[in-house]
């Protein structure tokens, strides 16, 4: 397992009281937990992945997500078992929408 940590500037989003969990860790998939973070204008991301050596890819995928979604004020935990970048982006969008109370 490899652990990666990133912090990205992101516009603030809705901040509900309850964390949101999306996805299931399994072969080729991942789970994402979104909960309140420390700073309203940043999202903090902690990734545990079985696929070693993809830090640059993770940074690009999460960075693009943070730039295009209101993820500021969140702390995101990802447990990955080899999901593709497209699946990561989809699950991130689903988890953030659930966290913010529904699709935006």
From TrEMBL:
Cytoplasm keyword on record: yes
Keywords (A to Z) from UniProt: Cytoplasm, Phosphoprotein
Primary localization class, coarse: cytoplasm
Top-rank taxon: Bacteria
Subcellular locations according to the entry: Cytoplasm
Annotated InterPro entries: Mal_deCO2ase/Cit_lyase_ACP, Malonate_deCO2ase_dsu
NCBIfam families registered for this protein in UniProt: malonate_delta
Protein name stated in the entry: Malonate decarboxylase acyl carrier protein
Annotated organism of origin: Dechloromonas hankyongensis
């Amino acid at each position: 397992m490899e652990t990666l940590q990133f912090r990205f500037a992101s516009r603030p989003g809705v901040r509900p009281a309850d964390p949101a969990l999306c996805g299931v860790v399994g072969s080729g998939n991942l789970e994402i937990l979104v909960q309140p973070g420390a700073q309203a204008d940043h999202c903090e991301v902690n990734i545990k992945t079985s696929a070693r050596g993809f830090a640059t890819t993770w940074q690009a995928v999460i960075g693009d997500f943070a730039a295009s979604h209101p993820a500021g004020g969140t702390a995101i935990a990802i447990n990955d078992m080899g999901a593709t970048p497209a699946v990561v982006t989809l699950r991130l969008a689903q988890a953030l929408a659930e966290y913010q109370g529904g699709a935006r």
